[in-house]
Amino acid sequence: MNKETGRTRSRGFTLIEVIIVVGVIIILAAAAVPSFGSTLARMRIQSNASQMVQDLQLVRASAITYQQDLYVYVCTSPAASRTTYYYELFQKDPLTTVPTHYTPMDAPVSGKFVKKVALYNMSFGGPFWSGPTNISPTLTTLDGRQYVVFAFCCGEGSNFRGQPGIVSSTLAPPYTAFSGVVGIPVVDSSSRTWYVTVSPTGQAGSSGVSP
């Protein structure tokens, strides 16, 4: 107590105490940063996969609604172009007996195709098949790039509504039916991988586990 004023002085923190507290805060923050970074990376890769799932669901629903086989192009080569895929909105000459299709390289494609590019420096791996029979996808070359092309069927002929199939290089039916789940890897710059999946019935989903 101060004898002159009669008031008690409050004791402050010493420099050592302040240094200890700051050190503890720094240690806790450093421990949390890797966890936050990993969570953010996972959210980003899931966001890309979820967008592709929504697009595939839209194509399948449109094929059934508008009674047209609609195509999806996933670029597999060169590596620098694996950030891109296209999906078809409607066919060329849909009222003809055997409709033909535009390709993403046809001009103009505005209103016929939607182009999607992976965000956050991610890329799409080549589609692969899991199931009783492994199907080697046919690669279609357009403008110097290679694509795996698959269709969602409208339900005509022997195909049921929404059935997916591999499209040959002629870009015309018949299609090779899926014998198992198709996986499309979504890969980030650190090689983390998430998978977009398409079932033999055409249902799209995503998973962190390879199908």
UniProtKB/TrEMBL annotation:
<keyword id="KW-0812">Transmembrane</keyword>
<dbReference type="InterPro" id="IPR012902">
    <property type="entry name" value="N_methyl_site"/>
</dbReference>
<keyword id="KW-1133">Transmembrane helix</keyword>
<protein>
    <submittedName>
        <fullName>Prepilin-type N-terminal cleavage/methylation domain-containing protein</fullName>
    </submittedName>
</protein>
<keyword id="KW-0472">Membrane</keyword>
<dbReference type="Pfam" id="PF07963">
    <property type="entry name" value="N_methyl"/>
</dbReference>
<dbReference type="InterPro" id="IPR045584">
    <property type="entry name" value="Pilin-like"/>
</dbReference>
<feature type="transmembrane region" description="Helical">
    <location>
        <begin position="12"/>
        <end position="33"/>
    </location>
</feature>
